[in-house]
Design a protein that fits this description.
Chain lengths: ~180, ~220
């Protein structure tokens, strides 16, 4: 049974077809969710959420793009929404925790990995997502463009800008 | 750091971050299967209600018709919004010359009423945490609203992309609440609350209520 047939079966309520469709995509969706969040629990939660949303809206899938592109777009949206929500909440918490953060900040220079992680985390959402998808998860620009719903050129320019910002931050790093 | 070293950093970027652990496939599938296939009001809807369940479409038309009949002001003159009125006329199979603006008003009233009910239900969500006994009636309210949500999604009211997106997110949240009728896990309400927060559902709901009320 091919993917189109599986989708039709899932719409008709066939749970075995649902599991088969899930098995085809779950690992890559989870991996992307993990890379975008850096947290296995959140990756699990967002993967579940993405599949629940995808199955709920499966009848709206027109097949204009590949199912994997459509599904990955959902997981990126789910993660982005959650991050926006966390950032909003984080701003409120930050003031309360400012004192404890100051106390626990290590005096030693952070190592390179830590510095890279912080630099990537501080990129804008669009740059960060593009960098993670391309340089860490190995998506092509064509795939990223399809998933994020932007032209391929935009994906390339975002990656270039993200790397430039990273280069700027890391320039000061002494090993 | 020089250019060569930076190129190395970019090349080795995957190794700079923790490798994803093996996905808990069965555990995740259990949650997805439960939400999608075991829900008392299954999320999956057939492509166009009429394609697989003509009786459901007939029931839907009846419910909407009764609702509209309740709100429809007799003898109201056609006035504004010809585009949506004509869309409603065609989608409802109204005869030419029918008072479509009154039908549009009725849809708007129904939508406003529904949005208010949905907002009230979601606002009361945190208060229900301590009371498991209240889950059944709470879930019942959600199930009723779920039916209305799906009717509105198949109605001309959902032609507005913003409202349609809101209805889709509400559908997902209401399905989760409707599931509280059975045994619920400790984290169920947290998941529902997260779904509401992540989709920014409350503020979009409030905004939609204000928009529909101000257009009256």
């Amino acid at each position: 049974m091919n993917e189109t047939q599986l989708i039709a079966q899932v719409i008709a309520g066939d749970r075995l077809a649902g599991r088969a469709l899930y098995d085809m995509h779950a690992s890559r969706v989870y991996s992307l969710a993990y890379r975008l969040t850096g947290d296995s629990e959140k990756a699990r939660e967002f993967t579940q959420d993405a599949f629940i949303r995808a199955f709920a809206r499966l009848s709206q899938f027109r097949g204009d793009a590949a199912f994997s592109t459509w599904l990955h777009r959902i997981v990126v949206t789910v993660v982005s929404n959650a991050r926006r929500s966390e950032i909003r909440f984080g701003r409120e918490v930050a003031l309360d925790e400012a004192h404890s953060i100051e106390i626990t900040t290590p005096e030693a220079e952070p190592d390179l990995k830590e510095c890279i992680a912080r630099a990537v985390e501080n990129l804008s959402e669009a740059y960060r997502t593009t960098l993670i998808m391309h340089d860490i998860e190995g998506y092509t620009h064509a795939e990223i463009a399809g998933i994020l719903g932007v032209p391929e050129g935009t994906s390339k320019s975002r990656l270039s800008a993200a790397r430039a910002q990273l280069r700027e931050v890391l320039a000061a790093f002494k090993e | 750091m020089d250019e060569n070293r930076f190129d190395e950093v970019i090349r080795d970027l995957p190794q700079s971050f923790p490798t994803p652990p093996g996905p808990p496939l069965d555990e995740m599938w259990g949650v997805i299967e439960d939400a999608h296939f075991n829900s008392p009001t299954s999320i999956g809807r057939p492509r166009g209600m009429t394609s697989r369940a003509p009786w459901l479409a007939a029931a839907a038309a009846l419910v909407i018709g009764v609702g509209i009949g309740h709100y429809l002001p007799l003898g109201k003159q056609s006035a504004t919004n010809p585009t949506s009125s004509s869309a409603i006329a065609s989608s409802q199979g109204l005869p030419p010359g029918a008072d479509t603006s009154a039908v549009a008003d009725a849809y708007r009233d129904q939508t406003t009423h529904y949005l208010g009910q949905a907002a009230a239900l979601l606002i009361s969500l945190p208060a229900k945490e301590a009371s498991s006994k209240a889950d059944a009636s709470f879930a019942g309210e959600a199930a009723d609203l779920l039916v209305t949500t799906r009717l509105l999604m198949d109605s001309p009211a959902a032609q507005d992309p913003k409202l349609r997106s809101l209805l889709e997110d509400l559908e997902l949240v209401l399905v989760q609440i409707a599931r509280l009728r059975g045994e619920r896990n400790k984290g169920d309400l947290d998941l529902i609350r997260q779904a509401v927060e992540q989709g920014d559902v409350m503020s979009r709901l409030n905004s939609a209520v204000v928009t529909t009320q101000s257009s009256e």
